[in-house]
Amino acid sequence: MLVAGLTSVAWVTTTDSEGQGHVVAQRAEDVGPAPRTTDGKVDFSGIWSPDRTFIYDIHDALEKGEDLPIQPWAEKLARERMSKDDPEAQCLPAGVPRQAPYPWRILQTGTHMFFLFEGNIHSYRQIFLDGREHPEEPDPSWYGHSVGRWDGDTLVIDSVGFNDKFWFDFAGHPHTEQLHIVERYRRPDFDHLNFETTIDDPGAYTKRFTLYGHSTYQHGDELMEYICNENNKDLPHIVGKDPRNVYSKKK
To answer: What is the pLDDT of residues 22-32, one digit of tens each?
Structure first.
């Protein structure tokens, strides 16, 4: 909004270390354009906030009014899963598209992109930008095999080859090894990262669906060392199911 004699102000959402969103005012001139690499591509590098909708329950990341097209067996399993059994609570990788409630860094080169995670096991995800294809028979893994391509200023990441061990969220939503994920990343300006994640898993869901997320640039921040395995005292005290999901709210 522009008012004579005043600064243009935008209301934006920031996320704290617990993954909670907060709406704050930001002057338009404080947000510069998205940086670019020497070859003109958008540079996604930097430290970014987590998005809580990719942490607690993926229902929250759906477009308003949409339902999760989950198969009956998969919904039954999600309802039955207890938080103490969550692989992430046992210091195992979060997988894709789940996020941890801690900052994460994108490191971009001409041939590779890396997502470096502060939380949990201090792990990383690798995306190939060198034009290679997926292997014919990828070895199932926590982060899968990811290749990226450019669609204008949008980076499209295609991932296959996942194992079926990780949960999509605290709610316990499952998947199968048929999982295929396509992500579309955009950086409209210096401070904002938008992403769309399309899930296609005919083993656990009746049709493909898309999740929508946002992150903000963390000025002056750095990743800290976080080794979940070192002092994991929470697990024996976790009882029941995390309540921040649609199944608990419907009780």
So the answer is: 444 455 457 89
Tens digits of residue pLDDT in 101-122 = 999 999 999 999 999 999 877 8
Considering only 25-39, 71-85, 128-142, 220-234, which range has the smallest mean pLDDT? 25-39
DSSP 170-185: TT-----TT-EEEEEE
Chain centroid to CA 197: 8
Q: CA 148 to CA 178: how far, in whole Å? A: 20
Contact indicator for 66, 205 with CB cutoff of 8 Å? no
Cβ-contact 50, 100 below 8 angstroms: yes
Q: Say which amino acid occupies 224.
A: M
Question: What are the E-state strand segments in the chain?
Answer: 9-15, 21-27, 46-48, 104-108, 112-117, 124-128, 145-151, 154-160, 180-189, 192-200, 209-216
CB distance 82 to 247 below 8 Å: no
